[in-house]
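Methods, example record. To illustrate the input and output format used throughout this study, we show the complete record for Putative ATP-dependent helicase HrpB. The sequence lines were provided to the predictor; the line carrying structure tokens was produced by it.
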Amino acid sequence: MQVRSGLNRVLEDSNQLVLTASPGAGKTTMVPLMLLESLPAEAGRIIVAQPRRVAVRSAASYVASLLGEPVGETVGWRMRADTRVSASTRIEFTTTGTLLRRLLADPDLVGVSAVIIDEVHERHLDADLSLAFALDSALLRDDLRLIAMSATADAARFQKLLGDCPLISVETPPYPLETKWVPFREAGLTAGGLSAAFLEYLASVIERAFNAHGSALAFVDSIANTTRLVTMLTERGVPAFPLHGQLSAAEQDTALSFTGDARVIVATEIAETSLTVPGVNCVVDAGVSRVPRFEVASGTTHLVTVGASQSAMQQRAGRANRTGPGVVYRAFSESDYARALRYAVPEILAADLTEATLLAYAWSCPADLQLLDAFPVAALARAEATLRGIGALETAADRLQISASGRILSSIPTVPQVAHGLLSACVWGVPSEVAARVAAVLSGSQIFPRAVSVDSAMRSADPQLVKRFKALVTQWGSDYTQVIEAPKRRLSEADWPGLVVGAAYPQRICRVNPGTVVSTLKPVRFTSVGGTGFEVEAESELASAQWLAAASVQGVNGVVKLRLGAEISEPTALFLADAYRQVSRSVQVNNGVIKAIETVSLGALPLHQKPVSATDTEVYDCLAEALQHCEPAGWISIFKPTKPALQLADTCNYLHSLDDAYPQINSAWISENLEIFLGTSITELSVGRPCAEVDALTGLRLSLGWETAMQIEQLVPRVVKVPSGREVPVTIDPDRGPTISVKLQECFGWRNVPTILGKQISIELLSPAGRPLAVTGDLTHFFNETYVTVRAEMRGRYPKHPWPEDPWQATATVKTNRVLDSET
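The corresponding predicted structure is encoded as:
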């Protein structure tokens, strides 16, 4: 009564509400009934969204039974391919996926008075999006009630998301619950999942619980492990039934029905929430969950087993004391529980966002949605690229938006890639029976341990899935014909399965790596349009293919292995991946020559190359990048300048060391002034003429400016006349600057050595034989201080040449003593 009055009071003041309650408090069944009593019939239906179909059926059936009616009257359900409602239905249970499509089709939610989204704490993508869409719908409808409900929700975050709405927290004391900690002696969770030893141990714990308490509900991570445990328990004489999402509704009902005989139900997370299992007051929890992990780089999703969150463990335990005192056996320790995450990682942060992104664009765009956690940037970009690849998104006015085909795909309750592959293939002439079988294989849960061809797998496709996909072709095929183009050539019948797969996943179309030799010893490697490398076992029927359309891949020890694919011809591969066809040009400078190559490729797969002439812009960009990334003197090896050009550059660099008003000529400076430096030569370079033919001297003068260039050349003369009367060439030494090399005797009496910007040029003094004796930048100091030592060492070695005691009074000469004596 307190909850009813509180709910009514809150909803009088606010149309939005967060409600939390302990497991077993009855929120899923009682809150809709409370709204039913408080809202007039003309207000419209009360929609209750659950994440799982089995929970929808269970909750609807229970609420209907409380009213003494069959499902379909006051209380009904609506799910894909299974609807039980009537004109008198007031409470409609549905899945969050079905609610999403309803919101897309009718944002105003005409005829709906309230939307309850249950188990929001699980953070499934459908639930997150449903809540975001419903919040937007509430802006259009000031009379629409919106309630987010859970047993273990992070209430404060949801309150903030719902505009700081009121919170009702129901702390109904549950029936007593006894916890038994029964950890395994070693790590049960390995890199490959749950170990065989742990499963044997878990079977023994379940058997012990069954013997002590009767009916029990056991939680494991995967469908495969539910089957293994049911087999183990049956062999031990324990009646056991599996419960998971791949079972038919009838099979699920069989597991949940209670005839009075004790039994064990081995379930995945499907039984965690909103489900009362009749006759069960004992739970055995393996403490693990199976979750999707999306690898953005490869675009593949892998299911991995991880430790369950505390929230999930609490929900599982809550199945034991819903109707009376219960007991939970936890096959892990108290410290394991304490270390577990409080809540599971939200799907939006770990899953493939392709379908969610399509629905977001069908609604508005991802950035505009009111979400607890925004779409991760990398995963969103990958999803957008995938959707562009199948034509579901397009760019208009520099904005990404949903296309006509994308609008159709968003209305179809299946993975958009599969829906596109199915409908496109039918438009292209593939019979609907074949296309539906391939789509059923792509959507099925069968696990292939080795690479299998779609041709083989489709023979055993699930008949119900085939029927469903054929119905989709009937419903949407004609509409799709209007939005995609038919091929210009007839496609091979042998490629029919591959057409469905390749249309669905064009980025996974792959080609055998060049130079591959098929061997029975080594796997064959393929590379996909998207750039991912796949391996195919050598013994597989697909190993000899040149082109494949990959349907299913699996990461194994860091290697992506193909598990399901279809061989296709090269023309079909080129047709399917045409959206990824691109022509690129690469321009490089090799040994001073500009070379341009044009490459035609399908995404990451190069098809053919040919040499082409580079454009002026490409030449400029290529040289600019090369100059920016090479050594400071690297420009010399590219342009191979003449001696006069090098002299000008060296001179300018020397002047820069004295006065930074002069530039430093290096690779970076050439890059900055490249357009002027090249002048009209850029056109000649584009047709393959070597860079060495560029007039570097003219280019430097133009880049410096003619006045500056002339000033530099005048500041540093090309030759210097020494006292002996000979003109000696000036060189620019990297360390000493302008330097002349001259015999010591030619410098006697030289007092006016030339200077540049106040600094004397360097003189390399040579012996009469032309060998270096000393280098000086101050000849006066040399003659006054050092000459006496040099004279003492050299006059005996070169006695035929003058070595006066006073070099200032001697006459500069290139002559020997004998010649000088003969002239006097």
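Annotations derived from this record:
The longest strand covers residues 547-556.
The chain has six domains: 2-170, 177-348, 353-410, 416-576, 617-715, 719-823.
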